[in-house]
Amino acid sequence: MLVALVAVVILAGLSLSCGNSSSKTPTGPNHKAYVTLPDRGSVLLLNIDGATGAITMGSQTPQVEGTTPTGLALLPSKKFLYAVNSFANTISIFNVASDGTLTLSGTPTQAGGSSPNAAVIDPSGKYLLVTNNSTNDVSVFSIDSGSGALSPVGLPVPANTDPSEILITPSGKFVYVTNPTIGMVTAFSFLNGVLTEVKPGSPFSSGDGAFGLAVDGSERFLYVANPSASNLPPFSSTRGNISGFNIDSVTGALTPILGSPFTSTVGSLPTAITVDPSGRFVYAVTPGSSFAIWCFAISPTNGQLTAVTSSPFSLTAGGLFALIDPSGNYFYIGGQAGIAGYTYDPSTGVPTVITGSPFSTGTPPTPPGKMVLSE
């Protein structure tokens, strides 16, 4: 019997983005990835072929009823993996073996809030941040580098209504959280484990259903997927759009990019979004396979988005996650068909299907799904 999967995939050694060449042969070592299986209360190991991008299933952690793991975060050292258990209001800590297999470490840590959802680790590897949907806050934990143990850093910090997705910028200076039910983005500065909401300004208006988040490597531009937003003519038939923001390098405040929001000529409901490692393209993905992959070129001067030739692409996608490995070789999308895999052209952004895609996770993914890559 197939069990619902909240696909939070952590790819060992990978971080999804778009913009790599379909004309060059990808090269690189094999990788590991992890996916949460909420209905089974477990985490699944995935093996990624570095030469082809193909995914095969590995081992699964023992099932624990009543946990419903959703978000995942992998320590930069790859020693520990953290799984956020939405129903149990806890965080499980796993030791990661050299072959990628997971072993539960001790008793799960209390999340500090109710209905924890997404998680992220800061670039230094010192702190874990978790969004709590029902208590409308973000918990911060310090990480013991030796044992992986978590210790709360103060009390959870208010993050407005229904905090869901969370992103920390490459420098670790700023944290952004989406608030889907109010169509906003809550912004924080982050220093020594302390979150401080950006005032004045935060939360910043994005669009109905604001959910997926992506930032370019230079930390100049933030992009947010608004799946429920309505559009003005000539895009009235398209549901959903992408908000673009300039990031103030000192305060972290957001100001709309000229021309924002950006949308597709056809297609609807973009929920997941990513920026390729080169910072040339933004990909937004929608459920299904009709006009499901939106690709935009980023203007390096002002962050404006322009749809690339032939976008949107009618290829298998999904609304759970969109990730590109740091080397730009492979682009993965999570949906009910499993995990769709692509290479993409670094000049045009056009995706090309990896042989064997979509790849099975043993159960159809269901929201809220996430994926994380590990080297």
Short characterization:
Helices cover 0% and strands 41% of the residues.
Known CATH architecture: 7 Propeller
Count up the helices.
0
**Assembly state here?**
single chain
Question: Helix amount, in percent?
Answer: under 10%
Largest sheet: 5 strands, mixed
- Kindly give the count of domains: 1
* β-strand amount: 35-45%
The end-to-end span amounts to 32 Å
Q: What features would you describe in this structure?
A:
This protein is an all-beta fold. The chain has a single domain, classed as YVTN repeat-like/Quinoprotein amine dehydrogenase (Methylamine Dehydrogenase, Chain H, 7 Propeller). Helix content is 0%, strand content 41%. The protein has no helices and 32 strands. The strands form seven sheets. Strands 1, 2, 3, 4 and 32 form a five-stranded mixed β-sheet that branches. Strands 5, 6, 7, 8 and 9 form a five-stranded antiparallel β-sheet that branches. The chain starts with 9 loop residues before the first strand and ends with a strand. The N terminus is likely disordered.
List keywords for this structure.
disordered N terminus, 32 strands, 375 residues, single chain, 5-stranded mixed β-sheet, 5-stranded antiparallel β-sheet, Methylamine Dehydrogenase, Chain H, mainly beta
